[in-house]
Design a protein that fits this description.
2 copies of one chain form a homodimer. The first copy, chain A, has 396 residues and is an alpha+beta fold. Chain A folds into 2 domains: 2-151, Creatinase/prolidase N-terminal domain (Creatine Amidinohydrolase, Chain A, domain 1, 3-Layer(aba) Sandwich); 154-395, Creatine Amidinohydrolase. Chain A has helices at residues 2-20, 40-43, 71-77, 91-101, 122-131, 145-153, 157-180, 187-200, 270-289, 296-309; strands at residues 24-29, 52-57, 62-67, 82-86, 106-108, 141-143, 204-205, 214-217, 238-243, 245-247, 250-251, 254-260, 320-322, 329-334, 354-357, 360-363, 367-370, 373-377, 382-384, 393-395. Chain A has a 6-stranded mixed β-sheet, with helices on both faces. In chain A, helix 7 packs across helix 8 (187-200) and helix 9 runs antiparallel to helix 10. Chains A and B meet through helix 3 and helix 5 of A and helix 3 and helix 5 of B.
């Protein structure tokens, strides 16, 4: 299964190289047990200890140059038809292979904008420049970010099915949480419950266990990207949880919101309902505009603008990101035009990409309302990948 | 525990900065869930999503600049007394902090020679140069490799105790393997047995499960760094296993060799004994010379030279590496003067470092003999961290 998916993505990569008029894509790595290029899992399928070069050309050639001790391992993984092993230095084989292929442009695994296209460390960049210094190839290096963005973003049918299954599993845990939430238990206890259940099912979390799930109860919670605390759930709290599981290497990422009824209440107070509905509506409005050719910031502006227009504070993060083998995946995102997001909010949305939509607002005195849904981009719009949260979940 | 160990290493880092006459050590990262600087676990203790700068000065100041959403998380981790949060761009806070500290030299997390000091991606290097372009600081950047090598290499007392415990646990699994080895089972079955036992004990493997343990039985095995195969153990095989477990974040890494007696044999044939004894002796000879001030290649040459002088082929890897939070850790190694090892065989051996010694040879017709021991460097020599393998283990 893993090998077939790698071959599928390698073929897609060669097509993308042709489309973008790039001759060669070079992924240059070492000691990937310590620091791993995020593309290796998708296009190689194993680790490398010594200086290693993984090459895919627009003609579909695939060549791996690895330390001689790792040739047997590469052969058993069987994702590269041509494997070259070296003993003392990668230089000669790498230079000779480049001379043979003679690429006019070489996309290399670095990028200012996209972390997933930026697996080349600066030390390895210096090594590469040194290796190529007496050749014309050192001057032909460009960023591989366009290739990586397209390859990770455009999901194959196989990938889409895995993503759907991952979301389905994720929602199962949200349902279980709805049943166990009750006043008196802490954020940490909720998180421990979820992690225990995931472990029992033999699955992995989508991101670091420290904040997967994140659980926030009541007013005055820690910010997003904080771990759960000993804060206890109380009546009158708005609770929300941010969580995802991996299924066969593909991540889900969803958020849901609950309200804990106070004595005598049968529904949430108007200000809580209003906050929840603003979130729900901002997702509907932005999803309605999400389609190929739009830029991420345009979609962000719709969701963000609606939240702000309703008198809430602007949320300090993007409206959505792509999801795939990593929770934060792909190239473009639905983000605001802030420096810290570089060029990614300006990348056009493409068919086959999967985005989260996750606006956020604080309901003063009650807590944080968020919903996070996942959508797949279609020919002329987008489709939700699971039933949406349309009602606030009430805890008695 | 984790926090105390981080504070201990941060203090050691400040002392090393002073010793090396470097004003500031800057670790610059982003999206560490995707690609993680290998130093974060040791000096920060959590992840970072947006452009983040972790700074330690020779005066002992520790300043973290992170995205505003992650300030609460950094506060709860509590390893940096000064935490600065930014909303849109890291630039202003980073430049202002540098102006305030005004360092003459800034060690940054990149290195040609040392992967563990090379967590800065090339894209992030370009970002950093851009951020600093109107300041004098862009010209003051040097590699942090000397700091990282010293900090990871020189183990504290606490670290040494954890390393010893890790080795003790590791040997327990070797003992269990000695009891279960028998003709007819495959390399994969041995590996699965070990992994199952480690899982039952709630521990983690020292390196990737693909080849932890590596198991090689008989002649014509795959090379080192290959995963176990379906090859079955037979009488007359030399078997060896390369394996390690992590204990509280610290790795062990050992190898042991067995021989499967043929019908009628009560001991291994002379050529097997000879191969085993050459390995054992080459470890004794090299360990006897291992002490502060020697260079790694000098020790490599002793072990390698002894194997070659006895008529065996030269092994295609270094004689030993440092061990710590990673299996391949620290700066210097006991490696030959080959291009692929860069400057690391030339780094002086220091007190408190922990090295493996792991020569290797092929006994034609029988299999591979290896022993891997771990030693800690003392004031004037080195000490083995566990009982050595002095006898070939015989399987009936």
């Amino acid at each position: 299964m893993q090998k077939e998916m790698i071959l599928e993505k390698q073929k897609q990569a060669a097509d993308i190289l042709k489309e973008k008029n790039i001759d060669l894509w070079l992924t240059f790595v070492r000691e990937t047990g310590n620091i791993k290029d995020p593309m290796l899992e998708m296009i190689v399928g194993t680790n490398a200890t010594w200086h290693s070069a993984f090459m895919i050309t627009s003609k579909g050639e695939r060549i791996a140059i690895v330390g001689s001790l790792e040739v047997a391992n590469m052969e058993s993984v069987a994702t590269f038809p041509e494997i070259i092993g070296y003993l003392k230095s990668v230089k000669e084989d790498l230079v000779n292979t480049l001379k043979r292929l003679d690429p006019k442009t070489i996309a290399v695994n670095f990028s200012r904008n996209q972390p997933l296209a930026d697996g080349l460390t600066h030390g390895m960049y210096l090594e590469l420049k040194e290796i190529l210094k007496d050749t014309p190839y050192g001057e032909r290096l460009i960023s591989s970010e366009e290739i990586v963005a397209a390859l990770r973003g455009r999901k194959s049918e196989t990938e889409l099915e895995l993503m759907k299954e991952s979301i389905k599993l994720c929602l199962k845990y949200f349902d279980e949480v709805t049943k166990m939430l009750t006043p008196g238990i802490s954020e940490k206890e909720v998180a421990e419950f979820v992690q225990k259940r995931v472990k029992e099912d033999g699955l992995e979390l989508s991101w670091e266990a420290e904040y997967c799930p994140s659980v926030f109860t009541g007013p005055d919670t820690a910010g997003a990207h904080s771990g759960p605390t000993d804060r206890k759930i109380q009546r009158g709290h708005v609770i929300n949880m941010d969580f995802g599981v991996k299924y066969k290497g593909y991540c889900s990422d969803l958020q849901r919101t609950w309200y804990v009824l106070r004595d005598g209440e049968t529904e949430a107070p108007p200000e809580v309902m209003r906050g929840f509905n603003v979130i729900k509506e901002s997702i509907s409005l932005s999803a309605a505009q999400l389609r190929p050719g739009k830029m991420g910031w345009e979609i962000d502006e719709i969701a963000r603008g609606y939240v702000v227009a309703n008198g809430y504070e602007e949320y300090p993060h993007g409206t959505g990101h792509q999801v795939g083998k990593h929770t934060h995946d792909g190239g473009g995102m639905l983000g605001p035009r802030w420096d810290r997001y570089g060029n990614v909010p300006y990348l056009p949305i493409e068919k086959g990409q999967i985005y989260t939509i996750e606006p956020r607002l604080t309901i003063p005195g009650f807590g944080i309302a968020t919903i996070e849904e996942e959508v797949v981009v279609t020919e002329d719009g987008c489709k939700f990948l699971s039933p949406r949260q349309t009602e606030l979940y009430l805890i008695k």
